[in-house]
Amino acid sequence: MARSGIGTVIGRKSVSKGREYRRIWIYIPTKVSEDTAFPFKVGEPCLVEIDVTRKSLAVKPVNREQATKLGWRAERKRAAP
């Protein structure tokens, strides 16, 4: 397993209610996400912070209750057409 790897920042455009938004995704290499020390599960919230001093991005696990208080919304299931 690997505790580090090279990821990729990906930009996507999204349209909601007639307004265009820019979404940023960060790809985490499979070998990192499969490491036994990887602290995240797909679909669970995480806290993302910019560290201006270090010019880096910190991503930390956060429980659903804390995330909800910070404005996180779980994905809503959409009705089938």
Please, could you describe this protein's structure?
The chain is mostly beta strands. It has two domains: 1-35, no CATH class; 39-73, no CATH class. Helices cover 12% and strands 37% of the residues. The strands form two sheets. The chain has a two-stranded antiparallel ribbon.
Can you tag this structure with a few keywords?
two-stranded antiparallel sheet; 81 residues; mainly beta; two-stranded antiparallel ribbon
Task: Give the gist of this structure.
The chain has helices spanning 30-33, 64-69, and strands at residues 8-16, 19-27, 46-51, 56-61. It is mostly beta strands.
Strand adjacency order, main sheet: 1-2
Characterize the quaternary organization of these chains.
single chain
Indicate the radius of gyration in whole angstroms. Answer: 15 Å
Q: Structural class per helix/strand content?
A: mainly beta
Shape type: globular
Order of helices and strands: EEHEEH
Q: How many strands appear in the DSSP assignment?
A: 4
| Average pLDDT score | 90
The total count of helices amounts to 2
Question: Helix share of residues?
Answer: 10-25%
SSE inventory with pairings:
Layout: E1 8-16, E2 19-27, H1 30-33, E3 46-51, E4 56-61, H2 64-69
Antiparallel strand pairs: 1-2, 3-4
